[in-house]
Every structure is written in C-alpha cells, then in structure tokens.
TrEMBL record:
<feature type="domain" description="HTH lacI-type">
    <location>
        <begin position="9"/>
        <end position="63"/>
    </location>
</feature>
<dbReference type="GO" id="GO:0000976">
    <property type="term" value="F:transcription cis-regulatory region binding"/>
</dbReference>
<dbReference type="InterPro" id="IPR001387">
    <property type="entry name" value="Cro/C1-type_HTH"/>
</dbReference>
<dbReference type="GO" id="GO:0003700">
    <property type="term" value="F:DNA-binding transcription factor activity"/>
</dbReference>
<keyword id="KW-0238">DNA-binding</keyword>
<dbReference type="InterPro" id="IPR028082">
    <property type="entry name" value="Peripla_BP_I"/>
</dbReference>
<dbReference type="InterPro" id="IPR010982">
    <property type="entry name" value="Lambda_DNA-bd_dom_sf"/>
</dbReference>
<feature type="domain" description="HTH cro/C1-type">
    <location>
        <begin position="5"/>
        <end position="39"/>
    </location>
</feature>
<dbReference type="InterPro" id="IPR046335">
    <property type="entry name" value="LacI/GalR-like_sensor"/>
</dbReference>
<dbReference type="InterPro" id="IPR000843">
    <property type="entry name" value="HTH_LacI"/>
</dbReference>
<dbReference type="Pfam" id="PF13377">
    <property type="entry name" value="Peripla_BP_3"/>
</dbReference>
<dbReference type="Pfam" id="PF00356">
    <property type="entry name" value="LacI"/>
</dbReference>
<protein>
    <submittedName>
        <fullName>HTH-type transcriptional regulator MalR</fullName>
    </submittedName>
</protein>
<keyword id="KW-0804">Transcription</keyword>
<keyword id="KW-0805">Transcription regulation</keyword>
C-alpha cells in the first residue's frame, strides 16, 4: 500500500482553506499588523496541524535577503588552532540558526580576496564574519570598501571596524600581575605571531602589569614569534641563561612547546621555574603539573560576533548586549 504524499502548504493554500486573504495569513505568522486574536489563533492552529514552514527562499526574495552569513577562516591555520575555531564556529552557528540564518564557510588564503569578491558579486551572503584579526590585513581593507556588513573576531585599532574580542589585554595584565605579586621579578614572555592583533593585546597587558607594579621589564626576556618548537627551545635556553624566575606564554600551544623543552632539559616545574599561559586548554589543565592559565568562553565569543552582525543586519538579538568575561585558573605550575 502506497503512503499518501504529504501536502506542502503555501500561504496562498492556507488563505484559500481558511477563507481569508494572504495578507491576513502573513500577519498571523509574523505577529505584525492588525487582525483579530481569533483569526490569528485560527491561522496558527491550521499551521501547527499541517506543519507549515515558511519558505526561507521566498522570504529572502521578499526582503532582499539571502539568510546566509559567510564565515572567513584562515587557510593557513594549524591543527593546534582547531579547537579554538571549532568552539567559535559552534557559537556562530548556534546564534545564526536561532534567527534562521545559515553559515557559509570560506577559506581565505593570506591576502587573496577573490572568494570575498565572488560572494559579494553573486549576492550569496548578507554579511561576513572574519575569524582572525591580522595586522594590516588586505582582507580587512577590502571589506571596509565593499558593500557587505561585516564583523571582526579579534581586536582592531580602527574605529571604523566593528569587532568582538576577548579581554586579552585585561586578562594578560591580571595574570602577569598575579605572578608579580607572588614575588617574581624576572619574568620571561614567550609571544606569538606578531602579525596577529591578539599578540599585541597580550603583550600590552604584560607591559601594563609591570608598569603598575613598578617592576622593570627585562627586554632580554621578551621573545616574539615563538610559534614553532625550534624558536621556543632557543628562547627557553636563553631565558634560563638570563636567570628567569618565571615564564608567561601567550597561548596554550606555545606553553605546551615550552613544557616539552623544559622536560628535555630536565628542568622541574614548579620546583625550578614557574610557568603560566594566557590561554587555557584541556592539555594544560590535565598536564602534570596543571598549568595556571586564563580561561575564555570561546563559544560565547562566536555567539557575540554573530549577534553583533545580526544587529547590523536589522535583527535584535539580546546577546548583543552581553559582555565577555574570563577566569584566571590558578594551578600548581605557579605555586
């Protein structure tokens, strides 16, 4: 026996079945416009009974929207960054879905803007989320001059660029201040890629903590672009020769490489040197010993970025008004 195919209703079908106008049905669905409560309830009961779902394509055409948002991901991201991007993407997708938007992922190769040009030319998206803030980015410069609304994840010194960011500078300052208050006076800093704006934010927090505590920064203990094992190993060798009493790493990846180098040299943490990270991860939490780190809510960061873009697009997400916070997780590595 063949199953009868379920009918897919349109607004016109509903209007005809109920003997009302299409405008009345539209007003009942949207909740806008003047119709009686009885008529509104009657339309909604019919919709529920027949599992009517608005045609997003038709809705988009009527409102000149695609209901798509582009998420620009860096093609050069490394495997160790995957968890950050995954959590951030989860937050973006969750927020977009709640407002009936879909996410189109586009991998951007350095300064190549051809994919963005194609998205814009073909009117495939209503807005763009840029997932990494890069200093002097050609992508950012292009977006400022194109017609598509966009939001940046990460800090920007340009007042014309809308962005959402964790409190990296404030958190970096607090973590460094805690270590200085513990009596460390010769802190080393292992920094990340200087082309990323977040590196500048965390470095500024490190400097501000020293200035506020009246402790001089030892320039011989500042190491930037330590984004590979060779660079980290060289930095660890030099900071030990310089007599560093503590190490602050800008992120969990650098910290993991630093721990590996210290183990190679048979340097015990925290007995012989203390170490902390400006970004937490499960690896650092479950390390032996567990590493003092800053915990950010990356899923919420993604939600906030999407909420701000939706606000620009005319939606009114409540999440746009929320703030992003962090926690300093004090663990055995700085005891």
């Amino acid at each position: 026996m063949e199953t009868e195919e379920k009918k897919i209703y349109t607004i016109e079908d509903i209007a005809r079945e109920l003997g009302v106008s299409k405008t009345t049905v539209s007003r009942a669905i949207s909740g806008k416009g003047r119709i009686s409560q009885a008529t509104r309830d009657r339309v909604r009961a019919f919709i529920k009974e027949h599992d009517y779902r608005p045609n997003v394509v038709a809705k988009g055409l009527a409102q000149r929207k695609t209901y798509n948002i582009a998420l620009l991901m860096p093609k050069d991201y490394v495997a160790t960054e995957f968890l950050f991007f995954k959590d951030c993407m989860n937050g973006i997708c969750e927020m977009a879905s709640s407002y009936e938007y879909d996410i189109i992922i586009s991998m951007i190769d350095g300064a190549d803007v051809s994919q963005i040009q194609r998205l814009e030319a073909n009117r495939k998206v209503d807005g763009i989320i840029v997932s990494r803030a890069v200093v002097s980015s050609k992508v950012q410069k292009y977006l400022k001059n194109c017609k598509e609304p966009y939001i940046l994840i990460g800090p920007s010194s340009d007042p014309e660029v809308p962005f959402v960011d964790n409190k990296n500078q404030e958190a970096g300052k607090e973590l460094t201040s805690i270590m200085l208050m513990k009596g460390f006076r010769n802190l080393a800093l292992l920094g990340g890629n200087q082309s990323y704006n977040v590196t500048g934010s965390r470095y500024q927090g490190f400097l501000e903590a020293h200035e506020e505590m009246g402790v001089s920064v030892n320039e011989n203990l500042i190491f930037m672009d330590t984004d590979n094992q060779a660079a980290v190993s060289d930095a660890v060798k030099r900071l030990l020769e310089e007599g560093a009493d503590g190490i602050v790493c800008m992120d969990d990846v650098i910290c993991s490489m630093c721990l590996s180098s210290l183990r190679e040299k048979k340097i015990s943490v925290p007995a012989e040197i203390k170490i902390a990270s400006m970004y937490d991860s499960k690896n650092l939490e479950y390390n032996n010993p567990p590493i003092t780190s800053i915990r950010f809510d990356t899923v919420r960061l993604g939600k906030m970025a999407c909420a701000k873009l939706l606000n620009i697009l005319g939606e009114k997400p409540l999440e746009d008004t929320l703030t992003l916070n962090y926690q300093v997780m004090l663990r055995e590595s700085t005891q």
